[in-house]
From TrEMBL:
Protein name (record): Bifunctional inhibitor/plant lipid transfer protein/seed storage helical domain-containing protein
Keyword Hydrolase tagged: no
Domain Bifunctional inhibitor/plant lipid transfer protein/seed storage helical: from-to ranges: 26-103
N-terminal signal peptide: 1-22
Amino acid sequence: MEGKRWCLILIASVLCISMLNGGGVTAQSAAECKEERRILVNACKGLITRKPPTPYCCERLRVTHVNCVCPVITPQLAALIDVNYAIKVIQGCGRQVPRHFKCGSITTP
């Protein structure tokens, strides 16, 4: 059960980070979105233990589409996400974080 909890927290953190990145707004199919999320989670697994993002993780954070992430962020998932940490990671990857950006159940400060 503890492993499932950590997996959920990893996914939540990565999703939060990716939704803040200002990714494209082009429509993606459900299958494309699922694949983008899978690739992102695999690329950024180290974030769960607060390791710095790898160059590949930063790349995935920059290219993941917001429209693939926002629908997945429920209030339950949002409760697991450290938004300040997510912002720090995004900025470390060279992206600006918009103020008061709403995605799913999260709004940035």
